[in-house]
Description:
By secondary structure, the chain is an all-alpha fold.
Amino acid sequence: xxxxxxxxxxxSIFKMRxxxxxxxxxxxxxxxxxxxAGNIYEHCPKCDLKYSREPGxxxxxxxxxxxxxxxxxxxxxxSFNLFFPQVNVGWQVGIISLVSIIAxxxxxxxxxxxxxxxxxxxxKEAAKNQNSSESISESK
Length: 140
């Protein structure tokens, strides 16, 4: 199995697709549509997987969002100190804060899809079963 190929968790995360069939959309809109940011479908449009396994399921995504935020901060901080050591600390913190604010909607969406992928695995049959039922209903 390829690292980024269909069937891997990274495929589902980067494409923001259903963790089970990896074909259906996970989010109702783009992460930067701030009115609907982070809204997910109730069920996968392809395999009918219920995305919210229980009430409060995505509260755990806060920990993932925190880890992503820390990783972003550390990456920029180290990059500044290695490649631009002449920039003072105030500017570094300001630029990193601005980048963190701009990246926040994407970080929020990414944390939800990562959290879902922790608990939902890929099943090749899920997409096949849905496709076969669609072809049966189309032939009627």
